[in-house]
Amino acid sequence: MNNIHRVNLSSGIIGMLVTSPKRALSQCLREASANGEELVFVLPDHQNVFQLLINLLILALTLLLWCPAPGYLVITRPRSIAPSTAGPAHEPPPAKMSSTECSKCGKSYEGDLRGQYCEVCGNRL
Ligand SMILES: [Zn+2]
How far, in Å, CA of 69 to CA of 29, rounded? Predict the structure, then answer.
């Protein structure tokens, strides 16, 4: 299942000063990556005529200082192989502290019984 993130940009004198499309885009990608998503593709956001007129009106009202600008649509999907599902291969093997195995018949005893004798075959453990 894909996710769509909208990267909002702004225009006008202030908008152009404070908004960097590159920075906004990389910020969005960083957040997606932190959520375990990978980039599929980036689309420029489309702006219809109505939105364009609204934006021009806002620009006029703010004396050319600021208005919304079309940004990007960032399509991501969950990473197929997340590092956390790679399996327990990296975990250390469980410690074998408290068992003793008879070297002759293979019977194993709980606890460190080295030096004693096997109940089954009498072999020294
Ligand atoms: Zn034995």
Answer: 19
What's the rounded Cα separation, in Å, for the pair 31 and 23?
A: 12
Q: Which pLDDT tens digit goes with each residue over 29-61? A: 999 999 999 999 999 988 889 988 999 999 999
Average confidence (pLDDT) over 90-116: 81
Tokens of 46: 């489309």
| Beta pairing partners, 42 | 74
Around ion ligand 1, residues with a beta carbon closer than 5 Å are 102, 104-105, 118, 120-121, 123
Say how many Å lie between the CA of residue 110 and the centre of ligand 1.
14
Domain boundaries, the chain: 3-78, 97-125
